[in-house]
Amino acid sequence: AHTTLSLNTWYHAAFVYDYIARTRTIYLNGYQDGFSSAGVLATSGSSVTIGGGPIGGSTTAQVYFGGYIDHLYSTRAKSSCEILNDATLAGYFPFDGSLNDSGPNFLVGTSTGAFFISGKVNQALQLNSTTPCYFQMKTTLALGTSNQAFTIALWIMPTTLSGVLVYVSSLSTGAGWCFPFLGFSSSGAIIAQVTNSSNTVTSVNGPVIPTGAFWTHIVQTFSSTNGIRLYVDGSVRASSNGSTGWSYSASGVQNYVTLGSNQGQSCGTTGDIVLGQYTGAVDELRVYSRELSSTEICKLYAG
């Protein structure tokens, strides 16, 4: 690989050996970082040691890894797009009769007052006006790292155009570091927003979407280059304007992502989103640690 790593930082690393092409490829955080030709891989049975072993064919020169290793698995040679998905899909919750994560991280979701109904895709989660009523997941550092690009995508079928859709906090109670990322304004418009280290909120106002038996696909993306983009049904409907160099100030820890409620908490800065209970259904929640392209978002919308 070509990248020099930093201490005390998590990286997603992947190695692929292609027997047919006789190549080996290293991926770092989902992207190719090293490539070379390779010979035939020895197929004789042997043990696999994680975290250390001899180098250069020596039986005495042992090298050991000092650090943390998590979520190791090897089943087959994966494609580059599969590895990118493994590295950057922080959580995927289809809500098909389960609150758990169907993505690569196997996160556990919880809910209060919610129940399953027929969804946009298979089943969905219904959130009622009874307070509090919400779904909650604890993510990786996808939304907890300042200036880290991210994408939040989900289908919604609102009963009323009010409340918080996506609320992020450092504590499960909704307290600590907290901020509403997606929700509704006082006029019922969809809002996407982030905050910086000066507690200055950058918000973009989307359209007023239909209520009743209508599903709408909502996506919020952020990057320091493009700022905020709000996609509605596969198309950009609002974006932050002005110069590049957008910033996002995060908690610095693993955050809780709550759908439908701020749990009665009042954050110091809430931007244009009016805090409160969201009433309606949610489906197909995805959180990425990168900014998805418009083509990728269109594919999510099209199914």
From TrEMBL:
* UniProt KW keywords: Disulfide bond, Signal
Q: Does the keyword Ribosomal protein apply?
A: no
Q: Does the keyword S-adenosyl-L-methionine apply?
A: no
Q: A Pfam family name for this chain?
A: Laminin_G_3
Coiled coil region boundaries = none
Q: Which residues form the LamG-like jellyroll fold domain?
A: 148-295
Mind telling me which InterPro entries this protein's record contains?
ConA-like_dom_sf (IPR013320), LamG-like (IPR006558)
Q: What is this protein called?
A: LamG-like jellyroll fold domain-containing protein
Q: What is the lineage of its organism?
A: Eukaryota, Metazoa, Spiralia, Gnathifera, Rotifera
